[in-house]
Amino acid sequence: MPGNYMRTVQRTPESYQACKDIIACMKDRAHLERQYAHQLTEWSNKWKSITETRPLYGSLMRAWQCFFSSTERLSTLHTSISQSLVSEDGERIHSWRKEMFPRKMFCGFKESHDLGAAFLRAQRPWEKRLKKLEKARAAYHKSCQREQSAQEKEHQAKHNTKLSESKLSKIQQAREKATQERSKARDRYEKVLEDVTGFAPRYMEEMESVFDQSQEEERKRISFLKQAFLSIHRHLDITNNESIKAVYSELHHTLMSISEPDDLRWWKNNHGPGMPTDWPKIEEWNPPIKKQKPGKKPKTHRGTEEKAVMIGGVRVRALYNYTGEESDELSFKAGEEFLKVEEEDDQGWCWGVKEDGVEGFYPANYVLPVK
């Protein structure tokens, strides 16, 4: 019917608005995913620090902490989902919408303008015929009304004995004329209707041709949005995500690894009878080492020539273990023998040389001459 094509023409701007709504909808969902990821991280950080102060240990502690590591991985996943919804799906729909809905200056969308013009061209001849048909119909109905009125007058005149023959004759002539006019109006009405009916197939073909163009554009939109929705579903469907499966698989494995014997054994070895014990024993006395006093001249390294002259010094044996604290000090164990090649200085240090040629200072009171 005339004007009914406008609903199809309006489908184009409505589809454009639908794309805008889909983008806004996915942005909201991305915001929710981002918030959820942030909340997961906050929860993990909060309870991770709390668990470190709790008395759990061993495999039970590892299982509890595994909840936090898995949560951090989930947080990363939901952050990735948020980014995919905006940067991939949202941008894809936005770019497609820009390409699919070109605008015509001062006329809105080009597709809507072209479809409206095509529908109007196809419908204009039909609309003219419908107006002509409506005019013929109105004329026919009006002639029928006049004929009915003339028939009623004729009927009343026939039963009026006071009416003259001439007047009755005029009334009858008027009724016959109304009947003829009705018949002519019906003929014109039927002729116009025949023309409209004969034009209908062509009209339908032209209108359906334009409508099919609109349907093809809509088919493309439906096909694209179907793929876009499938992409969104792929990003949101974490049930088939291998990373999610791995997170919960590892979590389940860690939980199943909780071992009562291992945890009890760990406690026994670290806080029970199995822990290392420093049993009492005799501690040997080591004489104090004379350290350099403030203001005193530090011990000095003798020249190679002087040490060579003293290579046949006094042989001494160590009474105690000694580990050198500086690079020019000699280290030895109790009972080890070496040569004393320089006399004790005023700070209690001597210069010694081992059989392997290692030399250095050592405390004089840690050794005795070998007899």
From TrEMBL:
Record-given protein name: Protein kinase C and casein kinase substrate in neurons protein 3-like
Signal peptide positions on this chain: none
SUPFAM superfamilies in the cross-refs: BAR/IMD domain-like, SH3-domain
Pfam families referenced in this protein's UniProt entry, alphabetically: FCH, SH3_1
PANTHER family tied to this protein: PROLINE-SERINE-THREONINE PHOSPHATASE INTERACTING PROTEIN 1, PROTEIN KINASE C AND CASEIN KINASE SUBSTRATE IN NEURONS 2 PROTEIN
Basic and acidic residues: compositionally biased ranges: 149-187
The species this protein was found in: Cirrhinus molitorella
InterPro entries registered for this protein in UniProt: AH/BAR_dom_sf, F_BAR_dom, FCH_dom, SH3-like_dom_sf, SH3_domain
Residue intervals of the SH3 domain: 311-371
F-BAR domain ranges (all copies): 1-263
Highest taxon, organism lineage: Eukaryota
UniProtKB keywords: Coiled coil, SH3 domain
Biased composition (Basic residues): 290-301
Annotated region (Disordered), positions in chain: 141-187, 278-304
